[in-house]
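Researcher: We're reviewing a set of sequences before deciding which ones to prioritize for further study. For each one, I'd like a predicted 3D structure that I can look through quickly. This is Lipoprotein. If possible, include the structure in C-alpha cell form so it fits the rest of the review sheet.
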Amino acid sequence: MRHPILLSACLAGVVLVAGCAQKQDDTVDRAFQDINVVDESNLSDVMLTVADPNEAANYFSRTAKEKPDRIDLQRGLAYSLIRAKRFSEAVPAWERVTEMDDALPEDRVALADALIRTGDWAEAEKTLDKLPPTHETFNRYRIEAMLADSNEEWTKSDSFYEIATGLTTKPSGVLNNWGYSKLSRGDYKEAERLFGEAIRQDPSLFTAKNNLVLARGAQRDYTLPVIPMDQSERAQLLHTMALSAIKQGDVSIGKDLLREAIETHPQHFDAAVRALNALETKT
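Model: Here's the predicted structure for Lipoprotein, in C-alpha cell form for your review sheet.
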C-alpha cells in the first residue's frame, strides 16, 4: 500500500519541481527582456548622440521596421536623418511621428524645422499654425522667428527672437540668427551688437565672428573686432573683411587686407591668393 502513496508523492514532487522550473524560466525570460530593453535604450541614446549620423539612421531605420509602433524608434530615425543632413528623408519620417497616437507638440515643431531645411517655408508655417498657443518652447519661437524673417515681418521677428533667447541657457545660435536678420535689413549697428553677444555666449562660434566682420565691413570699418580668435580664424576674418571692402569699392584696402590674410594664415591660403592675383591682374 505504500507504493501508490510513494508514487503519488514522487509525481507531486516532479510536478512541483517542474512548476518551479517553469517559474524560474519565466523569471529568467522576463529578466532578459528587461536587460534587452535597457540595452536597447542605452544603444538608442548612444546612436542619438555620439554615433555617426548615417550609422544611427541605419540603426533606427532597421529597428523601426521591426517595431513600427514604437514612437521612440520612429523619432530616433527622424532625428538621425536630420543629424545626417538627409532632410528630404527626414520630412516624411517626422510626418510619421506626428501621426502616431503618442506624438507630442514638439514633434510638430521638429517637422516644421525639417520642412524649412528643405526650403518648404509655406508648409512649415502651416505646420506651426496647428500647434496650440500654450506650447511655448525655445525651438518653436526660434522657428517662428525664422518664418517671420522670411515674410519680412520684422516686428514679429524681433519679438520671437527675444522670447526664444529668454527660453534657453545657450542663446548663441539664436542671437547669431537675430543678428543676421538685422544685417539683412541694413541695421548694421544692432547686428554688430547681437553678433558680439553671440560670441560672448560662445567664443567658438566662428559663424558669428564672420558675420560680425561683415557687419563692420558694411559700415566701412575695416578693423578686426577684439574677440577670441586663433591664427587661422584671424586670416579667414581678414579675408572676409577684404572681400567686403572690395565689394564697396575700397579695392586698395581690400588688397592690403588680402596680403595680411595670406601672411597671417599658418598654411597656404589659396582663396586669398587667388583673390589677390585676380585683382592685381585687372590692374
